[in-house]
Structure formats: structure tokens, C-alpha cells
From TrEMBL:
Belongs to the sodium:solute symporter (SSF) (TC 2.A.21) family. This is Sodium/solute symporter. GO terms for molecular function: D-glucose:sodium symporter activity. Keywords: Membrane, Transmembrane, Transmembrane helix. The chain crosses the membrane at residues 6-29, 41-63, 83-104, 125-148, 168-194, 201-218, 262-280, 300-327, 400-419, 431-453, 460-482, 488-506, 542-560. It is a multi-pass membrane protein. GO terms for cellular component: plasma membrane. It is found in: Membrane. Pfam families: SSF (PF00474).
């Protein structure tokens, strides 16, 4: 094995892995000293404040997929995939203004529980199954595969290499999955948010280091602009999806002819469908809000996360574009990434000195492990509360925690088994957003219409979710077999429109009076959320902070549109 990192780098990586597992296990010891065993294990005793919520949401979202696949996408297409980061800011405002207060008032541990109170038990059961699928397949499986892929590359292993008699990629998937599963199982949500807070700092530090080093090697913004405008793409002609020129790489507004497949209108129409499900109705992300100390913390946490979402474009996407210019200027003496997928690994091994390679690699492992731990904890919560306790209502808190731990182990095994299948997609990020596009439309329609329209009925919601799930599953099978659509964002928007029509029509066909327990879960007016105690003045007022967040992203978009 021809190692691309030295002994000091390996020591940094091993120390990190040992430290984060130890911290997670210690969180389990602290949790056991608290009261309310179930609430402490699954919801950290409802003690989270807005800084922890914002950091934990950001950490649960950011994984090695972002570090690797955003750099890969930027190497091929420029900044356009940054839409998935900056558009998130607008959906996080929706979470803060309209969804978070309803979740806190309902005092539910899971979003399927919320859906039962708003509609019926059938909707809860169906959302629980879909949420389990998304946690294991989308969150855990993709994060493990990407981290293992990068670790294999950094250690200088070629595809097909073996380690301890096993395929190296599979060995790393199993090792990372087991380590993450151990501290998540023992520590619960408290272990997740503790480790996430540290891992997020390490993740950002590693990303900033490689961006600054690459930026200095290139020579700054003027050199970047001039180089991209004047020279051909380093991989031009090697594949049909590689553009010939890089002149528009710093522009995020693309037309339908762009090879990225992300024209501006598809992003504007399609992303809100994906984003509302992901940021406002996905258990893995929203569980941090459910664990908030009070409504003020639940509102401010997502807005803090929105500010953090400014960073990935500069530190996850831009480095891939800088790498293009570095190769174009022959900084690496004729070398460059063999494929776009190798971009981030290439930058680590060719730009960083000994020690920093280990730090950035540890940051990448942190990104994967924090996403996996978040999804494992939400999986345990979903199964314990929405499936097991659903059939055994008298289950004690202690028994629920045991069931949650067993679920963590099973989910880890399933994610490990699924992970290698991700090699099927052209890029990992492409596989990720395609899966989200097929899962999100019916859930987005039910949640969005359900909290604003009092006449949305339980039967209508169940029909919408069932038909949408069947349609989404069919699209997934077609896509996996190579017959999927090209513009998945417009497809998601079209599916959302169809699901919305089905929900309205079915609610009218099967009308139901609004249940008494659902009364506080529906806004009587769209602006009702802005009334009452704002929780503070200035930026402590969620209304003021929401406006600041929205204006910030509008200005950022104006600069790159």
C-alpha cells in the first residue's frame, strides 16, 4: 500500500476517532445520571438552546458527501451546485416562522407523532416508514460510502484493494459504521449533539484550511476569474458531461443547455419541494428543534443554522472551482485529478503538508460520523415511539431505550449493506438529490397544506401520502435501472403539484371536522405566527432575524446571478 499520508497524519486520524467515541460514551454516562430516561436518551431532556440547535442541525446536514461531491460538482460545473446550500436559508426561515412553534406546542417526540395529532394514525405509520427509509438510505448509507471512498483514496489504495482480507472500501464502511453506532447507541441524542458541536468546528476548520491553501497557491480572485475565462476545462473531451470551457463557472444562474442539469427555473421551482421536506419535515434534521428548551430557542436555532449555510459555498464548493484553475495554470506540473470524483482527495494529498493532511482527513471523517450519528438517533427514536410503542402503548421508558439501542445496531447493519450500491450513480451527490426528489413531494404537500388549511382531512392526507409514495418508489426503481428523468428538480415540482391537487380533491371528497387536539396545530391566518411574544429585541426577535437572514441570501445571490 502506497500511503499518501505520513505517520503524523495517521496519528491525528486515530486520535480523533478515539476521542470522539470516548466523548460519546461519556455523554451516555452523563445522561444516565439525569431523570426521565426516555426523554433524555431521545430528546436530550428538552434542554437544547439555539446555538446548540443551529450547530447540530448544520452538523447533521453536512457530511462527507458535501466535502467530496460538492468539490466534484464544482470541478465539473463551477458554483451552480451551491444552490443547494444557499436556498436552504429560505426554507430554514419557514421552519422558524411556521413549523417550529407548532412542533413545540404539540410536545411531540417525533414528526410522525405530530402528523397523527394533525390527521390520523395511518398517516403517522406511513411517515414513520418513509422516515426510517430516508434515515438509513439517504443519511447514513451515503455518508458511510463517501467517507470510505475518500479514506481509501487518501491512504493511496486503488479500487479493488484489500485490507485484512476484505475489500478496503467495505472495511472502511464497516469500521466507521461500527464506531459511530457504538457512541450513538450508548449516549443517545446528548452524545450526538455533544460530538456534533465539536465535529462541526473540526469540519469547518479543515475546510477552511484547504480553501485558504488553495487560494494562496492560485494567487487570488483576479487570477481565478482570468484563468477560468481564458482556458479549457482540464478534463474536456474525457466524458460527455464535462463542459469544454469554464467561462461561466462563477455564475450560478444557468440555462437549460448547461450540462449541470440545474437551470435557474428548476432550482427556484424544485428546491422548495426538497427543502421543506428536508429542513422542516425530516426527523433526522428537525429532532434538534423538538429537543429545544422553549419556543424561542426552537425559532432562533434554525435561523442560526441558516447563517451557517452561507459557509459551504465558500469552503466546500469554491475549492473545487479553484482546483480547476490550479490545474489550468499547471501548478501541479501536469498532474490533476484523474476524475472529478477525485478532486478533494487530490487537493488534500497535493496541497497540504504533513499533519494538516491528517487534520483535514479527520474533518472528513467527522462530517460522515456526525451525519450517521444524527440519523441513527432519529431512527431509534422513530422506531421506538412510532412503531414499537404504537403496538405496545404500555412500554416503559427503560424498555424504549433498550429498543432504541437495538434499532441503532440494526440500522447500522442495514446502512452498511446498502452503502456499496451507491457506486451505481454518476456522482454521489447526484444520487443523493435524486433520492430526495422522489421522497419529498407528498410529505411536503401534506405538511405545508396541513398547517395552513384547516379543511385538509386525514383521509385526504393518507391518500396523498400513499399515492405519492407509490409514485416515488416507481420513479426510484426507474432511475436506478437507468431510465430516470434528467431534470429531477422539475420532476419534484411536478410531483408536488400533483400531490397538492390530490390532497385538496381528496379532502373535499372525504371531509372531516378538525379534531380538537389539532386546533393548535393549524394556523388560522398566515401571519398569526408573527403575533405575541417575540422573545427579545433586535436580533433576539425571530421576526427581525428572519428578515436579516432573507436579505443576506438575496444579496449573496445578486453577486453571483
Amino acid at each position: 500500500m502506497n500511503l499518501s499520508v505520513g505517520g503524523l497524519d495517521l496519528a491525528v486520524i486515530l486520535v480523533y476517532l478515539a476521542g470522539v467515541v470516548a466523548l460519546g460514551c461519556y455523554a451516555g454516562f452523563v445522561r444516565r445520571r439525569g431523570s426521565g430516561e426516555g426523554s433524555h436518551y431521545f430528546l436530550a431532556g428538552n434542554t437544547l438552546t439555539w446555538p446548540v440547535i443551529g450547530l447540530a442541525m448544520f452538523a447533521a446536514n453536512i457530511s462527507t458527501v458535501h466535502l467530496v461531491s460538492l468539490a466534484e460538482a464544482a470541478y465539473k460545473y463551477g458554483l451552480v451546485f451551491g444552490h443547494f446550500e444557499w436556498m436552504a436559508g429560505f426554507t430554514l426561515i419557514l421552519l422558524s416562522l411556521f413549523f417550529a412553534p407548532l412542533y413545540l406546542r404539540s410536545k411531540v417526540p417525533t414528526l410522525p407523532d405530530f402528523l397523527e395529532r394533525r390527521f390520523n394514525r395511518q398517516c403517522r405509520d406511513l411517515l414513520a416508514v418513509v422516515s426510517l427509509f430516508s434515515a438509513i438510505v439517504i443519511h447514513i448509507g451515503i455518508a458511510l460510502y463517501t467517507a470510505a471512498f475518500v479514506l481509501r483514496g487518501i491512504l493511496g489504495m486503488h479500487p479493488g484493494a484489500t485490507l485484512f482480507g476484505m475489500d478496503a472500501l467495505m472495511f472502511f464502511i464497516i469500521a466507521l459504521g461500527v464506531l459511530t453506532g457504538i457512541y450513538t447507541m450508548l449516549g443517545g441524542l446528548l452524545a450526538v449533539v455533544w460530538t456534533e458541536s465539536i465535529q462541526t468546528v473540526l469540519l469547518l476548520l479543515g475546510a477552511i484550511v484547504i480553501t485558504v491553501v488553495a487560494w494562496n497557491r492560485l494567487g487570488g480572485w483576479e487570477v481565478l476569474v482570468a484563468t477560468l475565462a481564458a482556458k479549457a476545462h482540464p478534463l474536456a473531451g474525457t466524458a460527455k458531461d464535462i463542459p469544454a470551457t469554464t467561462g461561466n463557472f462563477l455564475n450560478m444562474a444557468r440555462d437549460a443547455s448547461d450540462l449541470s442539469g440545474l437551470p435557474w427555473y428548476s432550482v427556484i421551482l424544485g428546491y422548495p419541494v426538497l427543502g421543506i421536506w428536508y429542513w422542516c419535515a425530516d426527523q433526522t434534521i428537525v429532532q434538534r428543534v423538538l429537543a429545544a428548551r422553549d419556543e424561542k430557542q426552537a425559532r432562533l436555532g434554525p435561523l442560526f443554522c441558516a447563517f451557517l449555510k452561507i459557509l459551504p459555498v465558500f469552503f466546500f464548493v469554491l475549492p473545487g472551482t479553484i482546483c480547476v484553475a490550479l490545474v489550468q495554470n499547471n501548478v501541479f506540473q501536469g498532474e490533476g485529478p484523474a476524475t472529478a470524483a477525485d478532486t478533494y482527495t487530490f487537493m488534500i494529498t497535493h496541497l497540504l503538508p504533513v499533519g494538516l493532511k491528517g487534520l483535514v482527513t479527520a474533518a472528513m471523517l467527522a462530517a460522515a460520523m456526525q451525519t450517521c450519528s444524527a440519523a441513527l438517533n432519529s431512527t431509534a427514536t422513530l422506531f421506538a415511539y412510532d412503531i414499537y410503542k404504537r403496538w405496545r402503548p404500555g412500554t416503559t421508558d427503560h424498555r424504549l431505550v433498550v429498543i432504541g439501542k437495538i434499532t441503532t445496531v440494526v440500522a447500522t447493519v442495514l446502512a452498511i449493506a446498502w452503502s456499496p450500491l451507491l457506486s451505481h450513480y454518476n456522482t454521489i451527490y447526484d444520487g443523493l438529490v435524486r433520492l430526495v426528489s422522489y421522497v419529498s413531494p407528498p410529505i411536503t404537500a401534506v405538511f405545508l397544506i396541513g398547517v395552513f388549511w384547516r379543511k385538509a382531512s386525514g383521509k385526504g392526507a393518507y391518500i396523498t401520502m400513499t399515492s405519492g409514495a407509490v409514485f416515488g418508489a416507481a420513479m426510484f426503481v426507474l432511475d436506478f435501472s437507468g431510465h430516470g428523468v434528467k431534470d429531477f428538480m422539475l420532476t419534484a415540482f411536478g410531483m408536488f403539484l400533483v400531490c397538492s391537487v390530490v390532497l385538496v380533491a381528496a379532502s373535499k371528497a372525504f371531509p372531516e371536522p378538525l379534531k380538537a387536539e389539532a386546533e393548535p396545530l393549524v394556523w388560522s391566518r398566515w401571519n398569526e405566527s408573527f403575533e405575541g411574544n417575540a422573545g427579545g429585541r433586535g436580533l433576539a426577535d425571530y421576526r427581525v432575524l428572519s428578515v436579516v437572514v432573507a436579505l443576506t441570501f438575496v444579496v449573496l445571490y445578486a453577486l453571483v446571478w
